[in-house]
Amino acid sequence: MEKPISNKTFDEITLGDSAVLTRTLSKKDIQLFAVVTGDMNPAHLDEAYAKTDIFHQIVGHGMWTGSMFSVLLGMQLPGPGTIYLQQTLKFLRPVHLGDIINATVKVIKKDEVHQHITFETVCINQRGEHVVEGEALVLAPTKKISWNVLPLPQVQMKTPDHNYDQWLLNKVAGMKPLKVAVVHPVDPFSLMGALQAAQAKMIEPVLIGPRLRIHKAAADAHIDITGYEIVHVPHSHAAAARSVEMAREGTVEALMKGSLHTDELMAAILDKDKGLRTDRRMSHVFIMDVPSYPKPLFLTDVAINIEPSLMDKKDIVQNAIDLFTLLGLGVPKVAILSAVETVTEKIPSTLDATALCKMAQRGQITGSILDGPLAFDNAISHDSANIKGIVSEVAGDADILVVPDIESGNMLYKELRYFSGVQGAGIVLGAKVPIILTSRADDAETREASCALALLYTRTKHS
User: Which residues contact 389 (CB under 8 A, 6 or more apart)?
Assistant: First the structure.
């Protein structure tokens, strides 16, 4: 909602007028201040370092308290129209996490000739101790101003320990690169993603496609592809077939989709005689870094199985569990999603969810805690689950979300991706080699993270 504010003009202000602002210093305040200003001093951000300095704990930036005076002068007294001219500051005590700071500005002098006002500026903590003192000089407004202040955008903090893409990149550091057939990389994005992963020493790419089109994509992206192996084929169908053949021969360890349709690549992979089938149903798993969720969130299957049967879903669930376990993340909590959290024959996916949970009880699905049917809200929100009276180890704390079909899953992923800025990495499991099945619209960073996931999966599986 808009917030109305108004000012006090020079003539309306008298000696002794004051305004107060109260803030409690939080970790998020410190992190946001560091992001905005670039002040990454470890005394403010690194607990281990802070223990070694004079204060023995994290302290707030001095200018965080100083900035409170700017808020008061610009928003309250005098308010809109004020020109900040000068500020002196004397820092008397550190401000620690959890300290409650009362900032006060008080009029101590008026200059009638220049319309200047001098303010005493003081910050006091919850113990009554002065932490900052100083004086401010402003040019006060001479005209009344009333304004509706628009709400600020909400900021979601993604700290390094929450950044799952970075976690993947750190985990694969030093691993032997994965030899990957990059299938039909004839546009800048698919080529850049592969070469970015190659430069990070995650993959050794083999570029499969029409040679001239690959070189044109490189030129368009201003990329030097000298030294990278190119296998020339005339078109995308041939590229898919040749990449699968190389995987069967053991020439490459994984496939990476370039600029071709998923069904083209999957047709070659699923070929009964020349493909890469195993006894397990193939399925796609996204690992998503959701800023508002406290841990990585796995989502399956949003790319391969259009309308999976119950037994297809059994393999889809097991593939995701196996990946979660292989990455060393423990025992996953798996939410089988539907439109509702109650079982009804009118919604077949609720029946499948019930059957999958029974399969887990009987050992047909192993290595996880399953619950379903669960609606999306009560799968990821404790509040929603509590309101609906759902008692479950999974509800509100899911690690893996299993969608009913490709339509709901694909829409859910893209809504998260484009509305919430969710980042993710994805691979196809259940084939003889992992398949990096990125969208043609995915950026190079998403492709690089997916390469890291495929590398970690392969090296861990065969270690």
Answer: none
**Helix, strand, coil percentages for the chain (3-state, nearest 5):** 35, 25, 40
Ordered by where they begin, the domains of the chain are 3-149 (3.10.129.10), 279-430 (3.40.718.10)
The token pair that represents 256 in the structure block: 């990476």
In one letter, which amino acid is 365?
A: I
What is the C-alpha to C-alpha distance for residues 415 and 288, in angstroms, rounded to an integer?
Answer: 12
Per-10-residue mean pLDDT, the chain, length 463: 87 97 90 92 88 90 96 96 97 93 97 97 96 98 92 64 66 90 92 87 95 94 91 96 96 94 93 93 92 88 94 97 92 96 95 97 96 94 90 93 95 86 86 87 75 92 81
Residue 358 to residues 284, 299, 373, 398, Cα–Cα distance (Å) = 23, 21, 12, 18
Q: Look at residue 443 in the predicted model and tell me its pLDDT.
A: 67
Q: How many residues does the chain have?
A: 463
Q: Which two tokens stand for residue 73?
A: 């002068």
- Of the candidates 137, 181, 142, 146, the residue with the CA atom closest to the CA atom of residue 3: 146
Q: Distance between alpha carbon 351 and the CA centroid of its chain, in Å?
A: 33
The answer to whether 209 and 185 are in contact (CB under 8 A) is: yes
